[in-house]
Amino acid sequence: MKDLTLIEKLGFRASDKLVIFHIDDIGFSHASNVASFECLDFGIASCGSILVPAPWFLEVASIYRNNPKYDLGIHLTLTCEYDLYRWRALSSVDPKTGLLDSEKCLWRTEEEAIANVTVKAAETEMRSQIQMALDNGIDVTHIDSHMGTVLNPKFIPSYLKVAREFNIPAFLPRITREELIALGRGDQADVILNMFSKLEANGFPLIDHMIIDTGGEQPDKVEYYCKLFAEIKPGLTHFLFHAAKMSPELRAITPDSASWRNQDYEAFTDPRIKECVKKHDIKIIGYRTIRDFIRNH
User: Fold this and answer.
1) pLDDT tens-place string over residues 202-219
2) Contact by Cβ (8 Å): 37, 66
């Protein structure tokens, strides 16, 4: 008998196009918080993940406690990429951990974090970020990775370890060698593919497809997203975007991405996006459904 796919186990057909519309970087600014919760309330975005060490995390926790329907995970981070807007690790300021740069903040680039952060410190920091959210009343539904850093082979075992500890799904895509090369990870392909194959054989739920390269300005971002929706294949797709509402704060923090983050916010609160989802027969799901399935089986 053929093994059921994850979406079949969740009660869908193998031919269904099931999509997690996921908002990244919640908590990084007031602008992102306002936009993200408007998108979630609008109904196409199904969930998102929080940058817990970021300055506006407590606003997220406050909003959530007043309305705990939201499906929120943790955007595990070992980096803080902005020029003048920084955050620190939660777990330690000890230089021996390698967590912090010369400004005593998390590293600006994935490469620096991978080179400097010890495995033990990374695991402790990931655990601290999840626990901080739980302690502030958030029912964490999943974990994923800011800038892809904790999905490096150096940190993946710890990433999966904390997922098991908290009994929550960890974003991990089924990926090909060609896709890894396109992401600049061709040198790690053998290690990653072997690891993912073993995980799937042991029943770990892998995401079938991912659409993550959605940054950048477009003449009409709704139209741009509708074209991407037309390409979505049967199976489970993790589709991410970054919503933030245009403001002086957003322009000051990230002048290079402020405009397209605002475009993402406007696109995912535009009635046309609902029409497009319907047109392409996309079924929307969040991570809470997957988490609850894992916990019950």
Assistant:
1) 878 899 999 999 999 999
2) no
